[in-house]
Amino acid sequence: MLKKLALIFISLFVLSTPAYASEKVNPALWLISDHDSKIWLFGTIHALDKKIKWRTPKITKALTETDTLYLEVSLDEMSGQKAIALISEYGLNKNGQSLFDLLTPKTNTALKQLITKYNLPENFKQQLAPMRPWLAALTFLNIQMMHEQIDPQSGVDQSLENAAKLFKKEIRYLETIEQQLGLFGNLSPEDDLRFFEDSIIQMADSPEMLHTMLDLWKTGDTEGLADFMNVTFSQFPNLQKSFLFDRNKNWANQIDTMMKGSGNIFIAVGAGHLGGEKSVQWYLEQKGYNITRVQ
After folding, report:
1. Which of the residues 120, 154, 221, 295 could staple to 124 if both were Cys, CB 3.0 to 4.6 A apart?
2. Can you give the three-state secondary structure of 238-255, one letter per residue?
3. Angle, in degrees to the nearest 10, between helices 177-185 and 81-91
4. Contact 191, 238 (CB under 8 A)
5. Which pLDDT belongs to residue 232?
6. Which residues pair with 292 in a beta bridge?
7. Residue 141: which residues within 8 A CB-CB, separation 6 or more?
8. How far apart are CA 40 and CA 268, in angstroms?
9. What number of helices (H) and strands (E) belong to the chain?
10. All structural domains of the chain with their residue ranges
11. In order along the chain (295 residues), what is the average pLDDT of each group of 10 residues?
């Protein structure tokens, strides 16, 4: 269970895995509508091999009709100075303790294996030492992403934002960068360390789990993806609540407010938020909304 947890964190914010252009990709899309509003709800992958062709005719039609695009967070801010400042605030050990003073022998062995696998420089461990475990885990997973030739600029969210800018559509966000990075920054020391250790061990021992999650996204199997995530998160109820349920409820409340207005809106969030109990749709259904699966 623990090995899956770190991967799931990354699937919510950062990482996916490569696939081939010849594969059929049919990600999930829903529609919520009333007499003067249409809201399309789309499950994304945040980084993707640029050869993947995921824009189906139904997605293209929905985007064409859209007045406003909502993403989880501003991608420009995620790569800007504000992100750097927040990472420094949330991601560095304030007490001067080295990350490597905290690790088990098993994790150290896996770490050495990955440093060799990715041909990292000898001083790489020194660069990781002042980081909090969660930031060190993201650093390694970004290295894995580059190793597998996955480009964040080719992620679904980035592609949608680029298209919205090109066609001069309004772009809004469901969360701030402070909220997203604060989720990591507020991890307890115990969960923070387990996140790093499980990430490193999983990367060394079980890389196929990335492909499992990607396959579920490509086929639009959000219930399968939700089962995969919730079985794991159920062992860690505090994390399940903060990283999944609380955010899903917040987004559902925002969608409820949007539906009280008018217009056509396209909302794109990580696919892991759109399946199972206490998903975004689950919270909306509690408010009385009928949600139609259109793809």
Report:
1. 120
2. HHHHHHHHHHHHHHHHHH
3. 20
4. yes
5. 67
6. 31
7. 10, 14, 15, 199, 203
8. 8
9. 15, 6
10. 2-293
11. 44 43 78 94 79 88 94 84 87 87 87 88 87 90 74 75 92 94 90 85 72 82 83 74 93 97 94 91 96 95
